[in-house]
Amino acid sequence: DRHGAAAGLTQGWHLSHTTRQNIRNSELAPLGMRAWQIKDELRQGARKPYKELIDVSSADPHRAGVKPLSFVRQVLAVCYYPQLAKSDKLPADVRQRAQRLLGTCAGGSAGSYCPAGGIPEIIDIVCEFISRRDDGVPSYPENIFITSGAQRAFVEILNILVNTLRSPITGVLTPCPSYPPGNMAVVMLGGAVVPYYLDEEQGWELKIDELHRALESAKGVCDPTVLYVINPGNPTGHVQSRKSIEEVIRFASEKRLFLMVDEVYQDSVFEQESRFVSYKKVLAEMGPPLSHTVEMASFHSVSKGFIGECGLRGGYVELVNVDPSVMRNLYTLMSRDASTTTGQLALDLMINPPQPGDPSYPLTAITLHISDLRVLEVLNSLPGISCQPVKGGGYALPRLHLPPGAIQKAKEVGMLPDYFYCSRLLEETELCVGAGSENGQRESTYHIRYRQSSDEVLRRLTSFHIQFMKDFS
Amino acid sequence: MSRGADPKWAGPPTAEATAETRDAGKLREKILTMETLNPHVKAVEYAVRGPIVIKAGDIERRLQQGVKQPFTEVIKANIGDAHAMGQQPITFLRQVVALCCFPELLDSPAFPDDAKQRAQRILQGCGGHSLGSYSASQGVECIRQDIAAYIEQRDQGIPADWNNIYLTTGASDGIMSILKLLVSGQGSSRTGVMIPIPQYPLYSAAISELEAVQINYYLDEANCWALDIGELRRAYRAAKQHCQPRVLCIINPGNPTGQVQSKKCIEEVLHFAYEENLFVMSDEVYQDNVYSPDCQFHSFKKVLYEMGPEYSSSVELASFHSTSKGYTGECGFRGGYMEILNMDPEVKAQLVKLLSVRLCPPVSGQAAMDVIVNPPRRHEASYTQFTKEKNSVLGALAEKAKMTEQILNSVPGMKCNPVQGAMYAFPQIFIPPRAVQEAQALSVAPDMLYCLKLLEETGICVVPGSGFGQQEGTYHFRMTILPSAEKLKVLLEKVRDFHLRFLQEYSPQEAPVRRTSQEHSET
Q1: What's the pLDDT at A366?
Q2: For A64, nearest residue in chain B (alpha carbons)
Q3: ipTM
Q4: Which of A3, A54, A176, B57 could form an S-S bond across to A193 if both were Cys, CB 3.0 to 4.6 Å?
């Protein structure tokens, strides 16, 4: 029973040459590596259809050309090099914020270790942020851990949950399509991935029936203990309604599943009708007994949203209704390895941005074009490609309806069909997108995953696609 | 907020809520309890931030709230955090990182050209020229290349391949990842990991979590904590009965012991590893912290190569470095790297997969690491100031190392080996039998009792030797030498005074100890 979702690596592009030679192809995502190569070739003056490589395969906004927010970078720069505060060139709120943040660091330096669990003043601000976001539902510092990226917290919580001494092994219900590092973490820790398929025709909705089916499929195979949800969806872009969240919470309670909720895209909701509501808020408002019994971990990060600082590695987890002894144990685990100060400072800046009246207000928001209806119209008008509406998140995830000829050709060259498509796209248009196989998809369906960032991206994709369909029909 | 001591959960049960839950039937059993959670993480302890540090935090809070104590501040001499103790960052490093962070500063005349050049090089290696982009899981390529160049230069020309270099989130992250890869087998074939005693407790915590078998080899306290090859063999042979020794960990310069291994000793260790087919993990984060003029840092890599191709092409070696120590003390940046030699290609593939689960190390930390391996050169503008700052930090540390050794050795009932390197003193303390008994009655280690009393009476927080491991029947504590020289002197005097009181209080007497009026006024 091959775990439905990703066995491959999303970050395969980063592997060195020698390592590549030693890894079986099926386990690698060679697209990224080839993209780097093409970039090098272009730099050395090679002649290609387009002069510039565009890499939109990852939801990393800076890589795709988006500029970081000045306020964020200015404050961090002053924290690193406090002499900068003497300069009048920097706005007053930048200098004040840097001063306040440095005051929370031991020795007044961004170079000292953070206390285990996080800088207390920043944890307090995280609590205020969560409470504000959730219309007053309280949040307690003892339940929050700041880590070097949400992924670190995710792995640590999973580490506690996955009991490899038990038989059968711990099962984790994970969405399909999913965020590959999430699934990889489960496998790495010795757990079993139990995929539940999101309903593509219904905008990648999470259906409770499907959760039941997935749970049923785990019988005799593993012991499902965790329900992993991503909202807004990654890479699907689906935003759950409150009703849907309530259903999931009830299901988790009924079936005794620990909820792990990845909410890193909570600030990336585009559609007017969709509104992000946190699992914590919904749980609280469902009242006792659920609100006092459902065990849950929610994750947030500075990597996405309007700040988009993936490389700074800042995130947090908030735990709800977790046994106090377990919390103490978790605290010891977290104290093994301090998190990066930079990430903590960036977290403060994200959840506590300049307000109207502050010199740095308004921040230039990182705009995303994914939700552009025009993009969807174009994609849906082409033969052989369709795309669900993108309500939020970081990607578009169009479906490819590949002609048999293309699938055959892919087989001949030993590639998965969507990889084949992406590989051709890369070679012919210097546009690098991700293959849906990395995220998982229903059998015999194919997708591409990309971060819609400019008209140029749509142009290259469209012209390539039309030609591709002609070539293989 | 009291972390680690008294967590409450969200939606703390109000009286009525609890009643409702109870009304709903039996109080619902949790999914995640100490019985159901991953048993591997249960036993994990980490002395450096353990119970004594939590206690120190509590006392600090009480002080802040105005509660009177016999002292006015808590001195955290437990953790190797230089900046927290007042050490100044290296200007050049902070300039480069600030430039990377906010590249508009590249136009500012306030920054020297050599810093700008470094920043530009780093940014060019980053996606979108930004520290905010994920890097490759192994780290930014040009930084890996810079590290290789540094290693070559440090090791007098012995080649380093940047493909063997991996950036990590602090050295701890790299160490954990390698251990994770190496632990396998069941029962008597379960991986055994040889670690020095005393050791930095990350190793024992990792071994416990991974359910590997811990194999202790004792450093020779009577001989300045030297590593005795005979002791390595003894430990190995004994362990072979019940596990499969696969890994040999060395910390050089040592933590907590501070000894700097001689070249000869390193050769013997590598030869032993070669004979017994052990994967060597060389924790070299203190490579820039060598104070004793009779000692010199030799990297395991260099010594391995100098032993000839039969060794250098077969012994599996992972060496670790970090931004947290040295003369920069940039703990908060979580920068580090490891150089891995002769690793099986399939295992390497698994390593890459493992690293990619955590996406990438903080890019700002990678930038800091780059500056450390690529400092200003003689002809560059920042060289003079950089060298001055570096020498000032290292000079101060060397003086403090010496002072600490001297003062502690002047205390009856205390013996401290020379602090040849690293950042700590690890004196052996005599604990009178009565105190040992009292500790046993309280179910704490005797040196923990000692350290708790030290904390309560003087506000000084150090870590009991039991957290690091020690020969049975011996007791120690580890303190850092990081406070300023003036503060350190006061600290050492207070420790001395405390120790004398402690000896007095627990001396073997029939009658209860009566304090003289002189001792009274000192307390």
Answers
A1: 57
A2: B128
A3: 0.90
A4: A3
